[in-house]
Amino acid sequence: MALAITLFKIRETLTGSACVLGINNFMALDLRLQVKLSQQLVMTPQLQQAIKLLQLSRMELVDVVTEELAENPLLEEGIETKEEQDEGVATLEGDAAGSTEAAPEQEVQAESEGMNDIDWQTYLEGYNLNSSDTRNSYEDHEDKPSYESLLTRQESLNDHLMWQLKLSIFTDAERLAAAEIIGNLDDVGYLHASLEEMAETSGQSLEVFEAAFKRVQQFDPAGVACRNLQECLLLQLERVALSDSLAATILRDFIAELEGRKYPVIAKALKVSLDEVLSAAKLISELDPRPGRAYNEEDVHYISPDIFVHKVGDDYVVTQNDDGLPNLRINSFYRNALTDSKAVDKKAGEYIQDKMRSAVWLIKSIHQRQRTIYKVTKSIVKFQREFFDHGIEHLKPLVLRDVADDIEMHESTVSRVTTNKYVQTPQGLFELKYFFNSGINTADGDAIASESVKSRIKEIIAEENPKKPYSDQKIVALLDELDINIARRTVTKYREMLGLGSSTERKRLF
Fold first, then answer.
1. Cβ-based neighbours of 348, under 8 Å, separated by 6 or more
2. Exposed (0-12), middle (13-18) or buried (19+): which is 387, by Cβ within 10 Å?
3. pLDDT tens across 258-297, in order?
C-alpha cells in the first residue's frame, strides 16, 4: 500500500513538471520582426527586351523593328546623330528627375495652349511627302497596277491535277469522284485513303471511284495517284511502253530482292544474265519515286550574313552588315513636345514619355546587340586564325567559355549571340555556332576539331571506289594514317551525321 502511494506521488510530480515545461515552451513561442538584407536579380522589361533581341536572327530582328515602327509614333527611320541620342537620353533622365521633384503648382492644365494650335493635317501631309515610300509613287492613281496583279504563287500539285480534270471529259459522278481522289493525295502524289472509304463518305458507288481512279492515274506527272512505290514505278514504265520489260517484271515479282541489291538472285530466278539485271536496275533507279515533289518544293530561304570577315593584308577585318536593317531615330517633333511642357497636357506628356522610353531602350538594345556580335566574332577570328587562313582542316576545338572569358561576358550571352547568326568569311558562309566544337586527340598529342574529322571522313568517302566502298573499319585505318585515332563507332556516328549511308548502301554496280 505504501509503495502504491509513493508511485502515485512520483507520477503526479512528473506530470506537473511536464505541464510546467509545456507552458514554458508555449510562452517561448512569439512573433518577431526581423530585418534581413539580401540581393536578388530582377528581370526588368528593358533587360528582357535586350535578351530577346540578342537571340533573334537577322530576319526576326527586322520584323520586330518593323512592328515597333508601326506601333511607336516616336520612332522613325533615319540616321540619329550622337547629339540627338544624348539629347533623348537627357530628356528621359530629366523627366525622371523632375517627376520626383515636381511641385503641384507646375502641373499642366487641360486648357493649356499649344497642341490645339498645331495644324495636324498639314503636318502629316508634309511628313508623308518626305517619306521614301511616296517618292516613287504614281502621279495618277489609275496608273497603279492592281494589288492582285503583283501577287504570284507557285502552282501546287492539286492545282495542276484539277486543271487537267477541268480539261478532261468525265461524267458528273466521275468528276466529283476524281476531285475527291485528288483532294486526298499527299504532297508527293500518293493516295493513302482507300477507294471504299471515299466512296462510302461521298455516297458514290465504288465502281464510279474505280473508273475515276484509273483516269486520274493517267494525269501528269507520271506515277501520280498511286498507293505504293511499286505501283508508282510500274505506272511510269507503262507510260513509256515498258510494262512488259524486264524492269517491270523485277518490280512486280522481285521488289524485295531489288531493295536488298540481290542482283545475282534475281538473275538466277529469271534465268537472265547479271548485266541484264543491272541494266534493268539502272532504269528503275532513274524513275521518280515522288512524282509530285516538283510541284510542292518549298521556297528557298536565302541567308543574309549578320557580319563579314575580310582579309586585308595579313589581318582580318570584322565589319557588320547593316543592309536591310532600318536606322532608327527619335522623332524630333515629339522630342521637342516633350521638352516643352506647356505644349502638351498631362496625359499626352505621360504617353509621349512612355513611348520615348520604349524607343530609346529599343535603339540601345539593338546597338548593344550589334556590339556583342562584333566582339564575339573578333574573338572567334583570334582563336580560329588557322581556319581562316587554310580552311576547315585546321579548325581548332573551341568552347563557349573560351570566348566568354576573352570578351569578359557570360557563357549564356555568347550562346544567345551565336544562335541563328551567320558570318561571311573567305572560306564561305558559316553559322557562328559552327566554330564551337569538341576536340579529338591526335597521335602527337594535339587536338583536332570534330568538324575537321567529319570533313576528312567526307573526303575519304568521296574518293572511294563506288563499286567497292570503304567499311567503317577501313575508314578508321585511313584516319589513323593521318594521325587521327578514333573508334569505329565514332566514325559511324559522324558518317550518319553527314547523311552518308553504310558501305552496303553506298555500293554502286552501275
1. 115
2. buried
3. 888 888 999 999 999 999 999 999 999 899 999 988 887 6
In the numeric block, the cell 513538471 is attached to 17
Residue 490 lies in a domain: yes
Long-range residue pairs from 229-234, CB within 8 A, at least 24 positions apart, any chain: 229/289, 230/255, 232/189, 232/190, 232/289, 232/291, 233/284, 233/287, 233/289
CA separation for the pair 125, 78 (Å, rounded):
18
Cα atoms in the 13 Å half-sphere on the side-chain side of 461: 25
Q: Are residues 443 and 431 in the same domain?
A: no
Other CB atoms closer than 10 Å to residue 456's CB: what's the count? 19
Look up the CATH number of the domain holding residue 477. 1.10.10.60
Same-domain status, 185 and 253: yes
Map 322-346 to HEC letters: CCCCCCEEECHHHHHHHHCHHHCCH
pTM (2 d.p.): 0.59
Nearest alpha-carbon partner for 232 in 169, 297, 186: 186
Calculate the CA 207 to chain-centre distance. 48
Residues 334 and 430 occupy one common structural domain: yes
Residue 497, C-beta contacts closer than 8 angstroms, at least 6 positions apart: 454
**Based on the structure, what is the number of domains in the chain?**
3
Task: Indicate if 460 and 386 belong to the same structural domain.
Answer: no
Does residue 418 form part of some domain? yes
Phi and psi based region of residue 313 (left: phi greater than 0; alpha: psi -120 to 50; beta: remaining): left
Please spell the DSSP secondary structure of 161-188, one letter per residue.
HHHHHHHS---HHHHHHHHHHHHTB-TT
Can the peptide bond before residue 221 be classed as cis, meaning omega within 30 degrees of 0?
yes
Task: Choose the final residue of a domain: 262, 295, 328.
Answer: 295
* 8 Å CB contact between 486 and 439: no
Look at residue 30 and tell me if it is in a domain. Answer: no
Q: According to the model, what pLDDT value does residue 272 have?
A: 92
In a domain, 364, yes or no: yes
Grid cell listed for 234: 510500274
Range of the domain at 200: 157-295
Reading phi first (left if > 0) and then psi (alpha if -120 to 50, else beta), residue 443 is in alpha
Q: Is residue 493 domain-shared with residue 444, that is, in the same domain?
A: yes
Residues 492 and 430 in one domain: no
Specify the pLDDT at position 182: 93
Write out pLDDT tens, residues 79-117: 655 555 555 555 444 444 444 343 343 333 434 444 444
Q: Residues of the chain whose pLDDT is less than 50?
A: 1-5, 7-8, 10, 14, 17-23, 26-27, 91-118, 120-121, 123-139
As a dihedral over the C-alpha atoms of residue 63, residue 64, residue 67, residue 69, rounded to 10 degrees, the angle is -110
Answer with the one of 373, 406, 435 that is the final residue of a domain.
435
Which residues are CB-neighbours of 56 under 8 A, at least 6 positions away? 64, 420
* Domain identity same for 471 and 418: no
Phi-psi group of 131: left, alpha or beta (phi > 0 → left; psi -120 to 50 → alpha; rest → beta): beta
| Integer Cα distance of 319 and 316 in angstroms | 10
- Are 234 and 248 in contact by the 8 Å Cβ rule? The answer is yes
